[in-house]
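thread from #wetlab-drylab

HS: before we spend reagent money on co-crystallization trials with 4'-deoxy-4'-aminopyridoxal-5'-phosphate, can we at least see a predicted complex? here's what I'd submit
DV: go for it
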Amino acid sequence: MIAVRDDLRALDGYHSAQVEARVRLNTNESPEPPPAAFCDALAAELSRVEWHRYPDRAATDLRAAIADLHGVDPAQVFAANGSNEVLQTVLLAYAGPGRTVATFEPTYQMHGHIARVTGATVVEGERAADFSLDPAEVERVLREHSPAVVFLTSPNNPTGLVEPFERIRQLLELAPGLVVVDEAYAQFADHTALGLVGDDRDLVVTRTFSKTWSMAGARLGYLVGPRSLVAELDKVVLPYHLDAVKQIAGRLALRFTDEMDARVKQLISERERVSEGLRSMPVDVVPSGANFVLFRPRRRSGHDVWRRLLDRGVLIRDCSSWPRLADNLRVTIGTPDENTAFLDALAAVLDEPPGEAR
Ligand code: PMP
């Protein structure tokens, strides 16, 4: 058998257990499907798809709809199959062999992973014990490594922490290369870096349809950035990468902003209820500006608690073995009933004597 590239041999893939459970709160999806009127509108348009033709390569209508949503020019928008593919395209164009990419850990694992796959060197800055980002550490990483690309995730995944606006500004001032602000969860927070994007700034802000827009199954994400950068990405991405159905689905979803805003409000209020419930238990809770909450049982093994929750039909994300996240667990905010089921199950698990279950 041919051997894989030397630099990929030691690389671990992306793992997220897809196990069956009554209550699934492990992947930060929207707990509800899109509005029924969206599905009707999509069905009507699907009957007009020209299946024998390639789709619009420039995704003109979709880009225009996204641009309209954010009050920018369509030439500032690049869309792809999930924000993961957006990030991959950025890294193919601006990272790669001989270049360095900086992350501040713990953060979204795919940033470092995709960068390594492109052949780039990854440097990992460290966050403080409370997962906040120390400006001195940002400065050190940028000065010592001059990264071509630096990532900031706000709200951060898996911590849920929102990056103060000043930190983003500071990073923009100091970064010698491209700053990528990953805003997969920005609708759940109170500020965005979108207003900082401009043609004379090496900044892109990435977004996804997977969370707020209830469309994780469609795989669609995008970025807003300088026109010249978007033009480079258009060169790098495969031709016709966005299929006709996805282009339609994305464009139609944006007609339902009121419904989606109402869902975001409901998720935020549920997030506060879940956080409060957690704070009444013997667990440490990280303040979240996202649609999930990171917590750590104080006197129990995180993995044991995760397993016992699963035994009770509640699946959350086990981050307990991830670097810098010992014993931490992440719960996605679901429907009110799912959240109550989670809180009840967790209270019961924490009441059990340790060592009784598997
Ligand atoms: N960025 C962050 C911070 C995420 O948490 C996720 C999904 N877990 C993504 C990007 C990728 O989202 P998608 O590819 O579904 O758009």
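DV: Residues 28, 82-84, 108, 153, 157, 182, 184, 208, 210, 216, 221 surround 4'-deoxy-4'-aminopyridoxal-5'-phosphate (CB under 6 Å).
HS: ok that's useful, forwarding to the group
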